[in-house]
Prior knowledge:
By secondary structure, this protein is mainly α. It contains 3 helices and no strands. The protein has helices at residues 12-25, 29-58, 63-82. Helix 1 crosses helix 2. The longest helix is centred in the middle third of the chain and has 30 residues, at 29-58. The mean pLDDT is 92.
Amino acid sequence: MTIVKTAISIQKSLFQRAEEIAKEMKISRSRLFVLAVEDFIRRYQNQILLEEINQAYSEAPDEKERDELRRMQRKSIKSIKAVEW
């Protein structure tokens, strides 16, 4: 794994809070920032995936999908009727 050094500019109060949290967690400030960025990326990717899923489900089924749904419903009803209670 290649390590890249970077410099960032943040508000002093945010920097101080990050320092406090790193000390509480007994990790380096760099490790804290890595964890924060990894978490941000994971949440961002999950948000994109959720939006894609919502988009897929928001589209109305086309004629072929509606036909398949009707076929599956008829088959399910026949199966349910065939079960003896």
